Amino acid sequence: MSPASETLLVLCAVSAAAGVLRARIPDKPRAPVEGQRGKDAVWVPTPPALVEKMLDMARVTATDYVIDLGSGDGRTVIAAAMRGARALGVEYDPALVEVSRRDAARAGVADLAKFVQGDLYEADVTGATVLLLFLQPENLRMLSAKLMALKPGTRIVTNRFEIEGAEPDEIGRIGGDSPSCCTAVLYVVPAAAFHAGVRAAE
Ligand SMILES: C[S@@+](CC[C@H](N)C(=O)[O-])C[C@H]1O[C@@H](n2cnc3c(N)ncnc32)[C@H](O)[C@@H]1O
User: Fold this and answer.
1) Rg of the chain over all Cα atoms, to the nearest angstrom
2) 22 C-alpha vs ligand 1 centroid, how far in Å?
3) 3-state SS class at 28
């Protein structure tokens, strides 16, 4: 075989190997499908207008550290970062985490909006000043002890579902007819003395 044919053969082999690799490693994350199954809750995104309403109700500013447990495609975390807040999304589905990181970079807030792949029940939320939750009632029930142990003054905003046994500080509504809008519920974690007072009064 001539040196020219040998070179051509090597180039063909390299190109074929690159083709196989390209086929195995997708160059963009798998697009999520609304209603797709998640570990403990399905993925249904909060509509953008309700995301803004939730951030308004929590009065999110650049001084906040915002956490979304079950952060989906990262939209709430990115929106909080757009207001200058540090924000963290905890999401079990690695493809959604990938979408979130890509969108945070596209929005220019990758330095403020971080995402971890993990289980929301195991996440450390003690440093949060704001928690955003769009989860099912049973998820909220399982989280409630952890939520009420947060620092007094921490704002928790849920999309649609209420936290059993807790009294909302505000209920906000926007117009719309999708099931994932149009109600947000704000809770401000009370001081420990409040809990003690309630227990004493019982
Ligand atoms: C209703 S979606 C809310 C998405 C996002 N927070 C929003 O408001 O647009 C719930 C999300 O929780 C995620 N999820 C379910 N179980 C989880 C778990 N155990 N740990 C982390 N994420 C979980 C799902 O994959 C899904 O993305």
Assistant:
1) 22
2) 30
3) coil
Q: Which of 73, 74, 102 is nearest to 88 (CA)?
A: 74
DSSP code for 198? H
Looking at ligand 1, which atom is closest to the CA of residue 71?
6
- What's the whole-model pTM score? 0.85
Beta-bridge partners for 157 = 132, 186
| Phi and psi torsions of 6, nearest 5° | -60, -45
Residue among 30, 36, 44, 124 whose CB has most ligand 1 atoms within 8 A, to mutate:
44
109-127 per-position pLDDT tens digit? 999 999 999 999 999 999 9
Domains recognised in the chain with CATH numbers: 48-201 (3.40.50.150)
Alpha carbons 199 and 202: distance in angstroms, whole number: 5
